[in-house]
Design goal:
heterodimer, A: 140 residues, mainly beta, Immunoglobulin-like, three-stranded antiparallel β-sheet, 8 strands, B: 132 residues, four-stranded antiparallel β-sheet, 2 helices, 12% helix, elongated
C-alpha cells in the first residue's frame, strides 16, 4: 500500500476510516445502515437486514431489475428528550436508502418479507432455471 | 422442542438463556445511546434478533452494569454477502454510586432494549423554594 505524502491528508483518511468503522459519518446516518446479509438457501435467496427499533410499516422494500432497495427513516425515541441530555450516541438514526444487486435470477412474483425483533427477512424465490437440480441416475 | 417450551424449561431451572450463552461462542458489542437527567439514566441498546426473556441485566457490587442477550436469529444458508455477524450480545458499563441498583427496569421492543437506572432519592438535586 502507498502512503499519502501529506501526513494531514493521511490523518484525515484515517479519521474517515475510523468513522466508517464506528458506523458514523458527519452527514447523519451511515451509508452502512442497515447492515444486510444475503444468503443462498437452496431454492431461495434470503436477505436479512438489521433494523432494530423499526417495524414493517416503517420500511419500504422494492425490487426492480435485479436490484432490491430498502428505504425508510430510523428515529430517536421521542420520550428520550425532555429533561435528558445525551451522553453517548452510537445507534445510527436518520433517513436511509440502500440498494444492492441480487446475485441470482429470481422470480419477482415470489418475494415475501417479514419482521421479527428488529430483523427484516426477505425471501426471494429463485427463478426455475436458477434452482439447484438433483438429477436421478438410474444404475443399470 | 418448540421455542416456547424451551424458554419455559430454562425459567424452571433458573438458568437464563443469557447465562447459557455466556459459555457459548463470541458475543458482539451492541450499539448504545445513553441519556441522563436529574431522575437517572436512560439507555437504548440495539439487540436485533433478541426475544423477550433472552436478556439478562445485572449490576454487581463494583457498580458494573452488564447486559447479556441471546440472539435467536438463525442463518438460513450460505452467506453470499455479509455485513453483520449473527451472535449473542454483551456490553458492560460502570455507573456511579448515586444510582439505585435495586430499581433498574427494562423493556425490550423490536430488538431495542430500553433501560432506566434511577438516581437514589437522596442523590437527586433538590429544588429549594424561597418563599420570603
Amino acid at each position: 500500500m502507498l502512503w499519502d505524502t501529506d501526513p494531514w491528508k493521511e490523518l484525515d483518511r484515517m479519521r474517515q476510516e475510523i468513522d466508517g468503522i464506528l458506523g458514523r459519518t458527519h452527514h447523519g446516518i451511515s451509508r452502512r445502515f442497515p447492515p444486510i446479509n444475503i444468503y443462498d438457501a437452496g431454492d431461495d435467496i434470503v436477505v436479512s437486514a438489521e433494523l432494530p427499533g423499526m417495524s414493517k410499516d416503517q420500511v419500504n422494500v422494492t425490487y426492480s431489475d435485479g436490484v432490491l432497495t430498502l428505504a425508510g427513516e430510523r428515529r430517536d425515541p421521542e420520550r428520550a428528550l425532555e429533561g435528558y441530555s445525551m451522553l453517548r450516541q452510537e445507534r445510527p438514526v436518520g433517513r436511509f436508502e440502500k440498494s444492492f444487486e441480487i446475485p441470482t435470477k429470481i422470480d419477482p412474483g415470489k418475494i415475501s418479507a417479514r419482521f421479527r425483533s428488529g430483523i427484516m427477512t426477505i425471501n426471494l424465490a429463485k427463478a426455475e432455471e436458477a434452482k439447484p437440480k438433483t438429477i436421478p441416475i438410474t444404475v443399470a | 422442542m418448540s421455542a416456547k417450551l424451551e424458554k419455559r424449561d430454562q425459567a424452571a431451572v433458573k438458568t437464563t438463556a443469557a447465562e447459557q450463552m455466556a459459555e457459548s461462542g463470541p458475543a458482539y458489542s451492541p450499539d448504545v445511546d445513553i441519556y441522563a437527567s436529574d431522575d437517572g439514566l436512560y439507555l437504548l441498546v440495539d439487540l436485533p434478533g433478541v426475544e423477550k426473556g433472552d436478556v439478562q441485566i445485572n449490576i454487581d457490587e463494583d457498580n458494573t452494569l452488564t447486559v447479556r442477550a441471546r440472539n435467536s436469529e438463525t442463518e438460513p444458508g450460505e452467506a453470499l454477502i455479509r455485513q453483520f455477524r449473527v451472535g449473542n450480545y454483551y456490553r458492560a458499563f460502570r455507573i456511579g454510586d448515586e444510582f439505585d441498583k435495586e430499581k433498574v427496569s427494562g423493556t425490550l421492543e423490536n430488538g431495542v432494549l430500553e433501560l432506566r437506572v434511577p438516581r437514589r432519592e437522596e442523590a437527586k438535586p433538590k429544588r429549594i423554594e424561597i418563599t420570603a
